[in-house]
Amino acid sequence: MTPSVLIWFRNDLRPTDHPAWHAACASGLRPIPVFIEEPWRTEASPWLDGRPALGARRAQFVAESVHALQEALGGLLVRRGEPATVLAALAEEYGATQVHCTAGHAPYERNDEAAVAARLDLVRHEGATLLHPDDLPFDLADTPEVFTRFRNKVERKWKVRPALPAPAVAVDVPKEAQAVTAKEPVDARLALTYEGSHQAARARLHHYLDGTRALSTYKETRNGLIGADYSSKFSPWLASGALGPRETYEAIRAYEAQHGANDSTYWLVFELLWRDYFAFVARQFGPRLYAGSGLRAAAPPPPWNSRARTAFDRWSRGATGQPFVDACLHELNATGFLSNRGRQVAASYLVHDLGVDWRAGAAWFEHHLIDHDPASNAGNWLYIAGRGNDPRPVRRFNPEGQAERYDPDGAYRDLWV
Ligand SMILES: Cc1cc2nc3c(=O)[nH]c(=O)nc-3n(C[C@H](O)[C@H](O)[C@H](O)COP(=O)(O)OP(=O)(O)OC[C@H]3O[C@@H](n4cnc5c(N)ncnc54)[C@H](O)[C@@H]3O)c2cc1C
User: Fold this and answer.
1) pLDDT tens digits, 283-312
2) What pTM was computed for the model?
3) C-alpha 375 – ligand 1 centre gap (Å)
4) Which of 71, 95, 121, 268 would be 1's cystine partner, CB 3.0–4.6 Å?
5) Does residue 383's CB lie within 6 angstroms of at least one atom of ligand 1?
């Protein structure tokens, strides 16, 4: 049997900008790429009356991304089960001694890694963030409590490692099928069709940068609510890993070299730093990321009783009677996407106006968002709930004031309510 090496793909479904895939191919061993559908995908969420954490739209998006990766690599095994069990069986089947993967941030990803490492030689590579944790001017355990301090520190010692090209290697395993294949209906009001693939991600990157030069006005438009180009819409591809953070960064720098840098081009990198920040915070706090009281043991969360359940049910259906909030939920539920402004207002309303535990809202977002990212989702919810990385104890968004400012003519509410 040819000695082999396993590459465990998860939220890193791309061939480029991929240190784990690169290292596995450089080992000279036969590379065996595998994607594993873990049991949590179909398990009922305790907050969602039997719904699974992985909703149908994201499942479809991920399935498309897996399929595209199979085409790009020339083969990819798809298996179901606990990663440690699946990988141990594959290691035996293919005579592999080592497994490479991209290091995860969420507690469940770290748990899976620990279980694999207990049985096999697991090599973790840092490929999910723009900045490599080893290049930070502090230990991950000392990640600053406030984003501005984090940003100031990393900007003073700025280092982004180059995005690696796709390795030229022939993969000799079959293209196995995924369980999820159903096509979700597309709402006619959806401004942008999200297709899960590295090619679609690159096409969107090109569209937002050189194609339309929308990047040059990002800072002015990023609080928009309607349309395809008020913000980059890179998040679904960054979350599934079809787009790498370093290749995104390099594209922004190349754009700046050609068309000029300004506040807007800086601001997109600034937002990518928020993404990194929440990933590092997730690593720093581990399971506390899901603690109802928050990262630093604030007051206990409100009780999850019948009053809370009724309020949550109305909120989740977009039936609160608050038109801006309802419009946000209708958009999320119908499309799997919601603007950053809409997410902030909807989250604040659930936590501060309805007094519901932030984890119920985070679970609803997790189920529906095609860009769900465990660190960014929990980090932003905690932030708004005043239980995370925010110097202000209460970050309430007044929905009427927000509607007046960001939807003055009511076009957004008319579109979705
Ligand atoms: C309650 C709540 C939940 C959220 N859940 C998620 C989530 O599950 N997944 C997710 O990717 N983003 C999440 N966000 C952050 C943000 O809303 C989305 O990243 C953004 O709206 C995606 O649209 P875009 O790609 O056009 O962003 P752009 O404005 O174009 O920003 C570019 C990229 O920067 C990153 N980014 C921007 N804002 C943030 C932020 N506040 N936190 C972390 N990263 C950011 C994203 O990767 C984004 O794609 C959440 C925000 C809130 C308030």
Assistant:
1) 999 999 999 999 987 789 999 999 999 999
2) 0.98
3) 11
4) 95
5) no
Tell me, using a 6 A CB cutoff, whether residue 368 lines ligand 1.
no
**What backbone torsions phi and psi does residue 36 show, to the nearest 5 degrees?**
-120, 125
Q: How far apart are CA 79 and CA 60, in angstroms?
A: 17
Tell whether ligand 1 has an atom less than 6 A from the beta carbon of residue 27.
no
Confidence of residue 11 (pLDDT cuts 50, 70, 90): very high
Could you say which of 1.10.10.60, 1.10.579.10, 1.10.60.10, 1.10.10.10 is the CATH number of the domain covering 291-416? 1.10.579.10
Q: How far is the C-alpha of 32 from the C-alpha of 174, rounded, in Å?
A: 10
Shortest-distance atom of ligand 1 to CA 338: 21
Cβ count near 156 (within 10 Å):
8
What CATH number is given for 4-128 in this structure?
3.40.50.620
Q: Which of 105, 204, 340 to mutate to test the pocket of ligand 1 (most atoms within 8 A of CB)?
A: 340
- The answer to whether the beta carbons of residues 99 and 8 sit under 8 Å apart is yes
The response to whether residue 337 sits with its C-beta less than 6 Å from ligand 1 reads no
List the residue whose alpha carbon is closest to atom 44 of ligand 1.
275
Domain ranges of the chain: 4-128, 198-285, 291-416
Tell me: domain 198-285, CATH 1.25.40.80, correct?
Answer: yes
